[in-house]
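Title: Prediction job returns without error message
Component: structure pipeline
Severity: low
Priority: P3
Assignee: unassigned

Description:
Job completed but the reporter wants confirmation the result is attached to the right record. Sequence as submitted:
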Amino acid sequence: MVVKTKNKNYTKIKVWDEDNFEMSNSDIKVRFIRFIEEVHKKDKVEIKESWILTTVKANFSPGF
């Protein structure tokens, strides 16, 4: 997804998830959500990365 475009400046955001991971000594399944933000300014690119860790609920659909 391109967020904002102005001349040669724009931002791309990518997001995806991985679910049903198991943690040792726990019955709770977890889900990782990863965000990559690419900020393009003229000839330079800055990359920012974020992760979210959450529990997985039954009958949940992320809708991506």
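Comment from assignee: result matches the submitted record. The CA atoms of residues 22 and 29 lie 5 Å apart.
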